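Pair request: fold both.
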Amino acid sequence: MWIQILLLVAILVQTIATVYALKLVHATKYSAIWILFIIGFSALSVERIIQLLIFAGHPIPRLFMADVGFIVSICLSIGVMYAHKLFKYIDRLNYQRQLWNRRMLTNTLRTEEQARSSFSKELHDGLGPLLSSAKMSLSALQRNEQDPTRREMLSNTTYLIEEAIRSIREISNNLSPHVLQDFGLARGVENFIDKCVTMHNVQIDFKTNLGKERFETNIEIILYRVICELINNSLKHASAAHIELQLTASQSELRLTYADDGRGFNPASVSENGMGLSNINSRVGSLGGTCRIDSQPGGGMQAHICIARTTPELSLKPTKKRRKQTKNT
């Protein structure tokens, strides 16, 4: 009796396994190895049914039993021997999916940078000259105006236009940094740091061995955006007073080390801290790089980013250290 119950349970389990295996046929792109497993599971179920019938007293030809056992042995044996091919195929599918996701992210970032550059050019070359022409016309009217009240109004209007021109230049530069495009990553980062220490009460130590070395456009732009994001996070969210930034290049990689003395946070709650860390991880991931962020409440934040480089070997130059601490009132 117990043997019959066990056989029924085995038939049920093998039937369920066969049904699930059939559902996965499409996922494996009808792999011959997987089909052999399905045939083996089905034949195994048939074998258990035959055994159950034998226990129930039904006569079953021995030749038929041997044929079923042979089919089970052949299918499962071949399937096991070539199962590694199925696993390799699944790994290849996963790799292709990851590669496609990375390409999609890279294309998205490239499109974003192109839109930034186009908008920056329109502001700088379109609206900027118009405001400059208006400023010159107002200056001419101001020189010829005799009424003090009207001269003061023209002077105030000219001042507002000058402020608008400065704002447009700043917005244009933030959208697409001209220093980064013309002089490279190190100079672009230095220029951004100069602006930060002018507007905030912060001390930033920047060390680099890059000099005037140029890298692929994607690498320069994405690393620049990441550094800007890290510094802005430290100033706006962590209230940091001291930031250490080291950007070095070796023969095979670019490495960014970043640390601040801010209030810190819990990296596990990325979605709650609102500091754009997922954006940083996405940008670094689009270059195939690695990003590790360590922090704890009250303990500041440290970031370690590594990206492979394809440019020629860079000789190590004396590091350049920049220390500033000013406040714009």
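--- second member of the pair ---
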Amino acid sequence: MSKDLKINPYGFREYDARWLYEKDINGEGIINLGKGLGSQIKIHTQKNNPRIIVGHDYRSYSEEIKTALKKGLISTGCYVEDVGLSLSPMVYFAQFNLDADAVAMVTASHNENGWTGVKMGIKKGLTHAPEEMKELKDITLNEKFSKGKGTEKKIENFQQVYKQDLIKKNKIKKKIKAVVACGNGTAGIFAPDILRGIGCEVVELDCNLDWTFPKYNPNPEDLEMLHAIAKAVKDNKADIGFGFDGDGDRVGVIDDKGNEIFSDKIGLLIARNLSKNHKNSKFIVDVKSTGLYSKDKVLLENNCETIYWKTGHSHIKRKVNTEKALAGFEKSGHFFFNHPLGYGYDDGINSAIHVCHLLDGQNKTMNEIINELPNTYQTPTMAPFCKDEEKYLVVDELVKRVEKIKNDKTKIDDQVITEILTVNGVRFSFEDGSWGLIRASSNKPSLVVVTESPTSDDRKKKIFNFIDNLLKETGKIGEYDQKI
């Protein structure tokens, strides 16, 4: 390994790669990442010159990183096809449309400025899972690189191909007035055009590209972004508000009254809507999602099954694929529409289109539609600091603690724990359908905490206090990013 090479091993996360640029990885490190990825693609495709689609998001340093990544890929023999400034779903779409062997999207999604990363995949519609990430880490850090003679070509005007693909099959009849907020991220040059194209009247909010993110990070789970959208919806008397993240694979939704609707509830509404025409379907949701899916009357009437699975776009995408589910919904706003509705990957704009179809199909406001769901009291996603090298061990200990509390029938707010799910951290449920979740974040040094109660706001808070005390007792937890 050359002395001026910098590549922090912790950047290889569960299902994508994220680093602070220059601090944790430098240009040489990115070239090696390209060599590692190229070598890995060759192993999996058994081709000397696999074709790989590459794109980048609108950060000041993303193009520079893409150039270094391409250099590494080409040195292994890859034929690079560069689609330019992109959203992650545009790169995923390009793999299908251009029938390529793999994808690499340079993005740190909604992470703060300074972060960079790569979302990559080989099998169409899927991104790297932990096994592939582990293999990539091994190839890259141990420099097990293959050599070859690659090439590079630019694919011109692919943005239009992607936009038209979404527009042509999704026209709506009703005039829906939508606030489209992009937090100055890359979605700004895509989302307004596409939603106008299907027939919406669009009110743009922070859609001009500005890599300094002058107002807030483009993250539809960020309360600051959601409050700005809510204000714009009320000021413009809009029917709906959409907020897109930095690389356009997630969406957040605000109803016509300016209320934020957590994405898992939107997912349930879309699932209900789809279940009418797609009876006996399966839906996949992540462990951070509302408990309403499992007992939903509309889904049960249409004989649909919901499976709770590991949080993370790569995990849900794969589960949708292996279960041949119709769709998957993640609390963070990643939605996945499988055949015949989509290619199985997450696309925030396609998700917003499905919400438009929901409004188009009935003579009700978004607020009226959401109020048809049983009310629940839910916390936002909260992330208390925990070191990368300690977080999984801390969670393992907490799983044991919660299992003991269940076995001892210890009551929390007069409720005993009736069910524990440990596919991803620990999700524990109570008799009345309330639940709490503790898991390790897959892309940051933190844990993730969510609680929900269909009974009362007070119970939601008491479950959070119970979790907070468990965390304090470990002595390994720092500040929360946000807290109820």
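Observation on the second member. The chain has 14 helices and 20 strands.
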